[in-house]
């Protein structure tokens, strides 16, 4: 009996290893996905290293304001003489953190609520669906303006809070639909017949089968929240000006004079946002092709 059990475990491990190798090969054959992964890793590592190293992004050089790119300032300087390369690198840390934190937390919240609604159904499902519809009815811009009016401040915490409470609905509906289908599967009925707790069935038995779309959703939402932060900061409703996110750096380019005469002030942060978001989308598409059974 023990030998049979060991043999089954070995077969399962071999099957899992074979599936993993197959997925890795499939991902490696997707050149855009690999390119996206390389770009994301390089940009993230560069930003984190610059932040940890304490690169000076605050001190202005009053003798070199609005200086075009040269050997001293590779990306040039901004309107008050601060090194633009340092600000883009440090700003990348904040922007990537905002995107990653908001995507992970909002998707986690949506997954938990979707699991509860889809598994229990009935009035629980109806209440959670109505709540999601209420949140979808409020545009993010309106919520940002409301919080600024209430707290009289623009802060990183406010922006993260808004992104989380306005970003969970898509994942909620996706997970809810999956749970409504999977809860009728045989293995779920067997678990229920043996008296397993509902929480164990939801999060230990069913949730692993729903992880693939959640993972893909997280990658795409990272790009979405980075763009949202850049948009809100550009119009002056994002984080405080003292925090050098990519959106805040672009905020200096609202002036027509800067756009026409100091191209480097908006080209480099704009290119950083575009390149990172494009790479994240390539990576997300690659993960979807590899992990989503419906795409295979």
List keywords for this structure.
13 helices; about 75% helix
Oligomer: single chain
Distance between the termini: 36 Å
Q: Residue share in helices?
A: over 70%
- The biggest beta sheet, please? none
Strand content: under 5%
Note poorly predicted spans. none
The mean pLDDT is 84
What pattern of helices and strands is seen along the backbone?
Answer: HHHHHHHHHHHHH
Q: What's the overall geometry?
A: globular
DSSP helix count?
Answer: 13
What's the Cα radius of gyration?
A: 23 Å
How many beta-strand elements? Answer: 0
Structural class: mainly alpha
Protein described:
There is one protein chain. The chain is an all-alpha fold and 296 residues long. Helix content is 75%, strand content 0%. The protein is built from 13 helices and no strands. The two termini are 36 Å apart. The mean pLDDT is 84.
Which secondary structure elements does this structure contain, and how are they paired or packed?
Layout: H1 2-29, H2 31-53, H3 84-120, H4 122-136, H5 140-151, H6 156-166, H7 169-182, H8 186-193, H9 198-206, H10 211-234, H11 246-251, H12 256-261, H13 264-291
Concise account of the structure shown:
The chain is mainly α.
């Amino acid at each position: 009996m023990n030998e049979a059990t060991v043999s089954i475990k070995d077969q399962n491990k071999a099957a899992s290893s074979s599936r993993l190798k197959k997925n890795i090969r499939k991902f490696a054959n997707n050149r855009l996905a690999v390119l996206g992964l390389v770009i994301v890793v390089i940009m993230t590592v560069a930003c984190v290293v610059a932040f940890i190293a304490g690169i000076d992004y605050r001190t202005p050089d009053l003798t070199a304001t609005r200086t075009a790119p040269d050997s001293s300032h590779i990306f040039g300087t901004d309107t008050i003489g601060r090194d633009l390369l340092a600000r883009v690198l440090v700003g990348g840390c904040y922007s990537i953190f905002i995107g990653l934190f908001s995507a992970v937390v909002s998707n986690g919240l949506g997954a938990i609520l979707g699991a509860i609604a889809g598994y229990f159904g009935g009035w629980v499902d109806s209440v959670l669906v109505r709540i999601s519809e209420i949140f979808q009815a409020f545009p993010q811009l309106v919520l940002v303006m409301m919080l600024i009016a209430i707290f009289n401040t623009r802060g990183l915490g406010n922006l993260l809070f808004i992104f989380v409470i306005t970003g969970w609905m898509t994942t909620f509906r996706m997970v809810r639909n999956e749970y409504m289908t999977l809860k009728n599967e045989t293995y779920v009925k067997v678990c229920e017949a043996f008296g397993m707790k509902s929480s164990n069935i939801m999060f230990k038995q069913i949730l692993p089968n729903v992880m693939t779309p959640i993972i893909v959703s997280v990658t795409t939402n990272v790009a979405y929240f980075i763009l949202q932060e850049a948009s809100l900061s550009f119009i002056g409703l994002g984080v405080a000006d003292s925090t050098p996110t990519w959106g805040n750096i672009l905020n200096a380019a609202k002036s027509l004079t800067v756009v026409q005469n100091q191209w480097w002030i908006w080209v480099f942060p704009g290119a950083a946002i575009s390149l990172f978001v494009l790479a994240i989308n390539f990576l997300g598409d690659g993960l979807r092709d590899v992990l989503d059974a419906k795409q295979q």
